[in-house]
Amino acid sequence: MKTKPIYVEIPIQVPIQRVWDASQEPDLHAQWDLRFSSISYLPKNEEEPQFFTYTRKAGPFLTVEGWGKSSGSQQLKNGSRSSALHFGTDQKVSPIREGRGYWKYEPIENGTRFLTQYDYTANFGEIGRFFDLFFRSLMGYATALSFDVLKRWLEKGEAPASQYRRFFTTQLLTVFFAFLWVYQGVMPKLVAMHPQEKSMIASSLSLSDAQATYAVIAVGIAEVLVGLFWLIYKKKRHLFVVQIVFFPLLTIAALIASPETAIQPFNPVTFNLSLMMLTGIGLLMSKDIPTAASCKRKK
User: Fold this and answer.
1) Assuming Cys at both sites, which of 193, 203, 207, 292 could form a disulfide with 145, CB separation 3.0 to 4.6 Å?
2) Quick one: DSSP state of residue 296?
3) pTM, two decimal places
């Protein structure tokens, strides 16, 4: 199966030279580009291509190291600039074996159109090519997200490290709340049907045992849907706002239905207070986070 090259383009409202410096200076480049942990230029003569090495930490115990060559840099009469790139790695654990691409910097009104296109061959033969169907999408997403981080850095001055801290905190809390809602809906309601779940709903709504059973199932399904909604809804900040209002109401309702739970271990007061604190952190961190959606992904 023939794969498509990865293409990413974004307008940045700063002069070309600033974008050029941020993407061609290795120390600056490694700060915003999620695909690299470090980039080091090797010594060269003036007429030689620029060789470099790079690393990408893929986890606490795995670091991928590779090589690269930047060549063919040129500047046109209209002010556009470009740079060709050849890269690869000899490490067997890397999904990428070797690739080529380019950077382009084109003048636009009040700024620069910054774009890249690159393609690569995958490691591990047929298995690697199948895995690359997913990995290539991840690489495209990481490239686009990195471009938006660069844009915000150059236009607004917020350091890439700060942007990534807010982005990954938001994503981590998203996964946490998705798991929490799904688990609370499935285990104590749909699978185990905990007696306390039935008694709380029955006493608060004056339901019979059979009616309480159906009510618990309905609540469980609703909670599962809320968890899935956390994964698919893009504007996470809206969900944090809803939760910051909902959790206090949920706590009050639980205490009205079953006041004795307030003195039990891991009771609704302490549990929901912890969730309110995490929701508040998410609300603060999710404001204006970088997004891959701001980039054009096709020519």
Assistant:
1) 292
2) B
3) 0.89
Domain boundary among 157, 188, 204: 157
Answer whether 27's CB lies under 8 Å from 8's CB. no
Given a contact cutoff of 8 angstroms between Cβ atoms, the answer to whether 6 and 136 are in contact is: yes
Evaluate whether 25 touches 19 at the Cβ level (below 8 Å). no
Q: For position 41, what pLDDT does the model report?
A: 93
Residues 53-89: pLDDT tens digits?
999 998 788 899 999 999 766 677 788 999 999 999 9
Q: Give helix 160-185 / helix 268-285 axis angle, nearest 10°.
A: 150
Q: Are residues 150 and 67 in the same domain?
A: yes
Boundary-marking domain end, from 157, 192, 208? 157
Domain shared by 175 and 128, yes or no: no
Query: Among 45-49, 126-130, 219-223, 268-272, which range has the highest average pLDDT?
Result: 219-223
Buried b / exposed e along 275-294 (16+ C-beta atoms within 10 A): bbebbeebbebbeebbebee
What is the count of structural domains for the chain? 2
Please give the pLDDT value at position 219. 92
* CATH number (domain holding residue 123): 3.30.530.20
| Residue 92 DSSP symbol | T
Residues in the chain: 299
Measured between alpha carbons, how far is 245 from 222 in angstroms, rounded to an integer?
18
Give CA–CA dist 95/93, Å, rounded. Answer: 6
SS3 117: strand
Query: What residue numbers bound the domain in which 24 lies?
Result: 6-157
Beta bridge partners of 157: none
**Which position has the token pair 């302490």?**
270
Contacting residues for 32 by C-beta, under 8 A, at least 6 apart? 22, 146, 149, 150, 153, 160
Q: What is the mean pLDDT of residues 119-148?
A: 95
Q: Is residue 290, in this structure, part of any structural domain at all? A: no
- Residue 299, pLDDT > 80, answer yes
Pick from 212, 131, 224, 209: which is nearest to 178 by CA? 224
Whether pLDDT at 171 is above 80:
yes
